[in-house]
């Protein structure tokens, strides 16, 4: 962990492991893996379940970040890299150009490196989505986060259940060679019937891979946990997802969207 932390500090990079208080940080860092967070530490949106700081970044973009990221990936010798970002509604392209540059830089630096891009909705802008889709990520993910009924209450007003499904469908159309991935956070008040409908909606949008994890309140300002699911409940949800037709499924209390992400390529996803 110290080696990774030192490299992150030297290249001035941020990981979502730190920013979102991920419960798997020790495990992932111990395996010399991390999910890199682009475009700064300040998110322009304020979802009620998220621990990432919100505010106005003022249009500031660090255009040298993709080059430093590629150098760090090369130094760490990573074979699988997950990239994500805060939402940047303050930018004309919502940060899509920098995201695409970062993906292409890593893919161009090593044919051995698989890249997973966990992206925001880019406000549904087709030009932004097209730029990211064309960058060559092996996996493109966008999280639905919660069920339709809870989405307006829990997600920022600029996000949306149907918007997320639209974005996922666009990536399916524009990046046919990529695995399309999404995630649901459970324990925020959803019902089993609503989870099933969300799964059907994701499958209809062309999503290949889904992950499910337990919501854990990240800060005092975030909504409280409505319910802790039992391990066997996650097992059953995973079985249902497989029956619906998803190619890759991972479910469990500590599962997050980037947790054991490389397992999709090893076909070792577990419920």
Explain this structure to me?
The protein is of the alpha/beta class. It has a single domain (2-266), classed as TIM Barrel (Alpha-Beta Barrel). Helices cover 38% and strands 14% of the residues. The chain has 11 helices and 8 strands. The chain has an 8-stranded mixed beta sheet. α5 (96-109) packs parallel to α6 and α9 runs parallel beside α10 (231-244). The two termini are 27 Å apart.
Notable features of this structure?
271 residues, alpha/beta, TIM Barrel, 8 strands, globular
Task: Compose a concise summary of this entry.
With 271 residues, the chain is α/β, with parallel strands linked by helices. The chain has helices at 2-10, 16-19, 25-30, 65-76, 96-109, 126-133, 151-154, 161-174, 192-204, 231-244, 263-266; strands spanning 14-15, 35-38, 80-85, 114-118, 139-141, 179-186, 209-214, 248-251.
List the helices and strands and how they pair.
Blueprint: H1 2-10, E1 14-15, H2 16-19, H3 25-30, E2 35-38, H4 65-76, E3 80-85, H5 96-109, E4 114-118, H6 126-133, E5 139-141, H7 151-154, H8 161-174, E6 179-186, H9 192-204, E7 209-214, H10 231-244, E8 248-251, H11 263-266
Parallel strand pairs: 2-3, 3-4, 4-5, 5-6, 6-7, 7-8
Antiparallel strand pairs: 1-2
Helix pairs in contact: 4-5, 5-6, 6-8, 9-10
